Amino acid sequence: MESEFTGEVARVVRGLLAENNISGARLAEALNRAPSYVSERQTGQRAWTMTDLDVIADLLRVEPMILLDEVSRRARVARDARDAALLAKPRRRAEPPPPAATAPRRKRRTA
Hints:
The protein has helices at residues 4-19, 24-31, 35-42, 50-60, 64-88. The chain is mainly α. The chain has one domain (4-82): 434 Repressor (Amino-terminal Domain). Helix 1 (4-19) packs across helix 5, helix 2 crosses helix 3 and helix 4 (50-60) crosses helix 5.
């Protein structure tokens, strides 16, 4: 994956395309690209270009800025949910250190 941001954009765009029944093959055709090009971007291995996002917005029948806003909103919601889940996990308590080893006591000689 290129970056966390690229991964978030890929995840959200993939979800929006699925919600609107737009297949990878249909998107590849609209982009005039190979299906592997689309696959690399849908999995976050490579970043979408602004031109790609413009074509995706057109397929979704929304303005490009609306698409970017939706990507940003959904990524923020997902990040907040992950952060909340991490904070909700109980932390494992550290085990107490083992008791210090003590040397056996010598018996005192009495004279």
